[in-house]
Amino acid sequence: MAVLNDLDRFHLVCDVIDRVPQLGAKAGYVKQTMRDKLIEHKQYITKHGEDMPEIRNWKWTEQQPPV
Predict the structure, then answer these.
(1) Could you tell me the end-to-end alpha-carbon distance of the chain, in angstroms, rounded to an integer?
(2) Diameter of the chain by CA atoms?
(3) Nearest to 53 by CA among 43, 44, 66
(4) Phi (first) and psi of residue 28, to 5 degrees
(5) Could you tell me which residue, 44 or 6, shows the higher pLDDT?
(6) Do residues 51 and 41 lie in contact, with contact meaning Cβ atoms separated by under 8 Å?
(7) What is the pTM for the complete model shown?
(8) What's the number of CA atoms in the CB half-sphere (13 Å) around residue 17?
(9) CA distances (Å), origin 18, targets 1, 29, 35
(10) Beta strands in the chain (DSSP E)
(11) pLDDT mean across residues, the chain
């Protein structure tokens, strides 16, 4: 449960937003979305004792460049 240790992609996104000055207010909505997802995830862990399925089953996928 990487979320409980702040080692997940949600925390990573928030850290990038905080550290890249050019993002500033433009990324505020994204940062709030990440915070909301973290709250939802922690509540799920408390209730079910495991990661949410979308977290537990997540896999890296290769992105194809836009054509």
Answers:
(1) 37
(2) 44
(3) 44
(4) -60, -40
(5) 44
(6) yes
(7) 0.72
(8) 18
(9) 23, 13, 13
(10) none
(11) 85
